[in-house]
Design a protein that fits this description.
Blueprint (H helix, E strand, L loop, with lengths): L9 H32 L7 H13 L12 E5 L8 E5 L2 E5 L7 H10 L7 E3 L5 H4 L2 H7 L5 E3 L11 H12 L4 E3 L5 E4 L2 E8 L11 E7 L2 E5 L5 H9 L8 E3 L11 H7 L3 E4 L12 H9 L3 E4 H4 L2 E5 L5 E5 L6
Parallel strand pairs: 3-4, 4-5, 5-6, 10-11, 11-12, 12-13
Antiparallel strand pairs: 1-2, 1-14, 2-3, 7-8, 8-9, 9-10, 14-15
Bound molecules: zinc ion (ZN).
Length: 330
């Protein structure tokens, strides 16, 4: 096995150290040039982190797709926003965003969306009103035109009283964005693909169970997602007889054992599962029981805390493929 370079000394070691130092100095010079350039563009104001991220950071955070796949018509981006959900559906150059992570990840999220080529959102979906799903939504609304917002049915649970939530609804109203309460059976076009509401939450005290259950369908891909819906939500969608078979499944509730029942997974039979969760999160997500269930149904599992951002796309031959930021983790 090749040496990792530790403990090298003498001429070779000093040469490597000098090279590294020069590399760092060169990077700093490039950064300084970018800051100065953006300052001029901004009319004398220093650039925001979002602008710098857009220039440098996000290109590294974005999984590299093979050249022939860069223009793939269908891409599902599971954006690494730490402990939370933000999933961008890209179809034929049209975009829908399901949830928007916590507020502290909003700058990264907006920069990622720009880097992914988003200039407007056909649809912005709120699965349920917890902050790890809506914290970044205000920033998204401020950054991009949004054609429509899809909301869960707030008559089924006590109305959330958080300021993040109330300010978000105020922003939607102020910007005069059409907002619709989801109903089971509703369909929305995203390019040539279709997002269908399979479940519109249940009567509950538990806001997780307000979560919308959706299926996105495009040639070569069916993607099932249920926000943070727990066992009663999964039971309800199975009882409804909706077609839940899918190639791709977003682990519900960040891979919690309160969701992801064997009955559901055996019916969905996904080939790939993506878990959106933060590194060393305090909830212990994903839970062992859920990981076991994903293994039992034979799905490949990709975790954003290990893989970074995950992009699932359909290649030229019509096959589902996966690209991740940290290739060693996949
Ligand atoms: Zn959540």
């Amino acid at each position: 096995m090749a040496s990792c370079g530790k403990g090298r000394s003498g001429q070779k070691g000093r040469g490597a150290a000098l090279k590294k130092l020069m590399g760092t100095a060169a990077s700093l010079l490039v950064l300084l040039a970018a800051v100065l350039g953006l300052t001029v563009t901004n009319g004398g104001k220093l650039p925001t982190w979002e602008q710098l991220y857009a220039l440098f950071g996000v290109s590294e955070l974005m999984p590299q797709l093979p050249e022939q796949a860069q223009n793939a018509a269908t891409k599902i981006h599971f954006i690494d926003v730490g402990q939370g959900d933000a999933v961008l559906i890209e179809q034929d150059g049209c975009f829908a965003l399901i949830d928007a992570g916590e507020r502290d990840a909003a700058e990264t999220l907006v920069a990622y969306l720009r880097a992914a080529g988003v200039d407007r959102l056909t649809l912005l979906v709120m699965t349920h009103p917890h902050t790890d799903h809506i914290g970044g939504m205000r920033a998204v609304l401020d950054a991009f035109p949004v054609d429509a917002v899809l909301l869960p049915d707030f008559t089924k649970a006590p109305m959330p009283a958080t300021s993040t939530f109330t300010k978000l609804l105020e922003a939607v109203a102020e910007k005069r964005i059409p907002a619709e309460t989801a109903c089971t059976g509703d369909t929305f076009a995203v390019g040539s693909g279709t997002l269908t509401v399979l479940g519109d939450g249940i009567e509950t005290e538990n806001l997780n169970d307000l979560s919308l259950v959706t299926m996105f369908e495009a040639p070569g891909l069916r993607y099932f997602s249920s926000g943070d819906g727990e066992k009663p939500v999964e039971r309800a969608v199975l009882d409804s007889g909706a077609g839940v078979r899918a190639d791709l499944y977003k682990a519900a509730h960040h891979g919690s054992s309160t969701s992801n029942t064997r009955e559901l997974l055996e019916t969905v039979r996904p080939r790939a599962v993506v878990i959106s969760c933060g590194k060393d999160n305090s909830y212990g997500h994903p839970h062992r029981e859920a990981m076991e269930t994903f293994g039992e149904v034979g799905a490949s599992v990709f975790r954003t805390d290990e893989c970074g951002t995950v992009i699932v796309y359909v290649d030229d031959a019509g096959a589902m493929q996966v690209a991740v930021t940290n290739k060693e983790a996949a």
